[in-house]
Amino acid sequence: MFRLHVANATPLPPVEPVLVPVTKIPVPKGYPFNGWTEPQKQLATKLKSEIQDEFIHLTGKPLAGEEEWALSDETIARYCKASKFDAAKSLAMITKTLQWRRDFRPTEIKPEDVEMEARDGKMFYSGFDRMGRPILHFRNSQLSKNPDRYLRFIVFMVENGLAICQKGAMQITIVVEAEGISPFSIQSPMLYVKFLDILSSHYVETLGSLLLVDPSWYIPVIYNLVSGLIDPVTKAKINFILTKKKESKVEQVGAGDTGGWNKGLAEFVALDQIPTFNKGTFEFEYVHELCWSMFLERIGKA
């Protein structure tokens, strides 16, 4: 009797996350003030001048690079847009953020301070949406045993994820694996409210879209409980994505003040940019050592 012996196949190397866009988007002439009226441009110039007088009123130890950050064209443009070009409001918003940055100190969060939260792949960057914005994936994964560290991890990912953005697309898209989420598989809803408040107050005009894929029954419950605490501009960027027929009722979610319900991800993101575990076609599994080292190298913190 003959036996067929097959040599052990060499295991394939893990698939790398996509951290560099395949397609470069064109940078508009005059970016980031492209399309602005002359009065709007004058407001930006005035805001730059006025901000410099606010530093003496801040408390706490100055943060390295804070003036460079505050006076950059991108920061000025973000806050002008967020305030709807209201001069006084723009100045108040950016001053509030400068004080928050001194208190929270996001630029001083070290990778080793938050790496424990990254190990199970509960949050990582890979892929770009149709607007060329990097995608931050939230997985329905293990609960953190340290909510404060988890919040700092989220802030670390948003703060540093902007380094992945290509010029002309200085926003991120968040895609959440929302299927199967229950009261036992999610952090306190108030932690996410706190994060959304930080995002809307101190990372203005940074969120492009927030996509909740196939939300479980618990997502509408949470949303109805906390929606009053979420900034209206942020609400409008929340989109509920259905990739299969579900019995969820739109009216239960109060989708009128959000981006609403959408059939599938394709409108926002090419499916080859989304891992298969979240209804995409990208054959990808998070391997911490590879993905974390590539991310740190991409943001200049390796």
From TrEMBL:
One GO MF term: phosphatidylinositol transfer activity
Domain CRAL-TRIO residues, every copy: 111-286
Cross-referenced PROSITE patterns: CRAL_TRIO (PS50191)
UniProt cross-references to Gene3D superfamilies, sorted A to Z: CRAL-TRIO lipid binding domain
PANTHER family given in the database record: GH16843P
Protein name per UniProt: CRAL/TRIO domain-containing protein
The species this protein was found in: Rhizoclosmatium globosum
